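Good morning N.,

You mentioned wanting to compare the apo and holo forms, so I went ahead and generated the holo version with 2'-O-acetyl adenosine-5-diphosphoribose. This is what I fed in:
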Amino acid sequence: MVLTGAGISAESGIRTFRGSDGLWEEHRIEEVATPQAFARHPALVYRFYNERRQQLLSDTVQPNAAHHALARLEREYKGTVNIVTQNVDNLHERAGSHKLIHMHGELLKSRCVSCGDVAAGVVTLDQHDQCRVCNHRGVLRPHIVWFGEVPFQMEEIAELLAHCTLFISIGTSGNVYPAAGFAKIAAESGARTLELNLEASSTPGNFDEARYGPAGTIVPLVVDELTGSS
Ligand code: OAD
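and this is what came out, ligand included:
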């Protein structure tokens, strides 16, 4: 089981959340990533995510060596590889990973708060858009899990945590729960735990082993080891 966070996409040109300036693309996270922010300032939140989609769809943002290495791991590893990502970008799937859970949602999807329809292929979204299923207007929101909301597919994630033999965390600071607690749960279920990050996360004690460096360099090396190609 592989848990990924913003650090794996940093070398693709997508900024992490908790960089040294403490801001996410010039905004405090609470200004743009909470249901309260969306209720109070919907135009700001729509604009913010429209900009994030434009960035993701620009030619300069491409999967990097770490995303490609994980796709190779899925193809070549003797056992089953499941990725649970906190990232809302689509770089894992573009690199060729298939067994993938987007626990914090997906940037290129919208959700209707009236009928629940989830639509893919979203580029821009605003308060005037109409739901393709129920036809109501002003009901489409980014398909993103905001602070205070429950992440997606938690039952499947619990199953993976209970049964995985190796848990690898890549590029996550370990500040946001429940994901920050996954390594401990996996370890308690008997898995070996490995952290791959630029620096020690907030929960280094949860890992049997850690390697520090840019994901684009260290993830391919670990995948080589796991697939016997080193
Ligand atoms: P953070 O921004 O909190 O942490 C990113 C981590 O990646 C940090 O520990 C960095 O040191 C590390 N990092 C940076 N560049 C790296 C590189 N090139 N290679 C490897 N590691 C690198 O991001 P997350 O932990 O993913 O939630 O944040 C978790 C959640 O907080 C996000 O999913 C998001 C946010 O609020 C929602 O939007 C719901």
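The radius of gyration is 18 Å.

Happy to go through it together on a call whenever suits you.

Best,
F.
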